[in-house]
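Table S2 (text version). Query chain:
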Amino acid sequence: MNRTYSYKKKINSPPGSLVYTGTKTSKKPEITLISYSNRHYEEKKINDQSKLEEILPNIDTNKGVFWLNVDGLSEPLILEKLGTAFNLHPLTLEDILNPHPNQRPKYEVYDDGLFITVKHIDWNQEQYNLIYEQLSFVLKPGILLSFQESEENVFLPIQNRIKTAKGRIRTMDSSYLLYALLDSVVDRYFITLENIGDVIETLESNISEKNNPKIMREIHRLKSSITFMRKSTWPLRDVVNTILRSENDYIDQSIYIYFRDLSDHIHQVIDTIDNYRELLTGLMDLYLTSIGNKTNEIMKVLTIISTIFIPLTFIAGVYGMNFKFMPELNSPWGYPIVWVIMILISIGLVIYFRRKKWI
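Corresponding structure-token output:
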């Protein structure tokens, strides 16, 4: 998933300006309104933006939980209408439309609801890199608004759980729905880390078998991915811990036990990330050491060859001098004798090096 982000689109814009800093797409955002309780389930696809003004005012939270999910942020006009209908703060809308990778997960409490942003992270098995996008949530009594950057619905498993009434989700309120969505995000972290772990094991075996320059590039790429995950999970831990420490009217007290379990999962993710960082650092050192050992082996072989040829070069240099009076030059056995001496010296040096265990 290749996206480009630019803060230049917001330069000189006043705070709260609705400017999407990501890549514009031709596909229109998809809006899904789901209402459910322990007795009923209803799902509506709002394809016509003009119907927003007709549907949203008719939401009655006494009939159950309402979940409005927006897939795609390329049209700020939709967020402006939702902001008007649900009385969303302009800064909240601005944060939703600013899904830059450097934007940290955050948690804000307002007079009529709370706002949370997180990073959804997945692993691209074909390109061996991370796929990420920002997810935003607005929780109000009986209502949850969710916004995701891509048109691909990452919350489809949760929607299926609600539709098929699996688990306790149909009997719980909107704060439990928020927990379920955040838990699904953290679960994807575990799957992503498992995939990264498999790649690390492959790199480790390749380092011991062969020295490939691509290995170092793969290690750097994985370290960048791990660093990005760490930058996304540490603030998320703070978000969940802030929820646990705070008291508000939007999260039911009975749901706090689930958020404590979510906090434990995030700590496990962070521990795994730290372990992988240390392992990748070790792999980098191992790769550099293997390269150094290979270079040393090459230098040892070249040194041995040079050492063997030093006395041979000396003999050839002596008898290559152009002096007229050299008695050995007139000897009929001079040439073969020199060859025998040179061969014996070479064999003797090889035997000496072997006894010293240099070769």
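Notes on Table S2: The domain at 7-289 is CATH 3.30.460.20 (Beta Polymerase; domain 2). The two ends are 53 Å apart (CA to CA).
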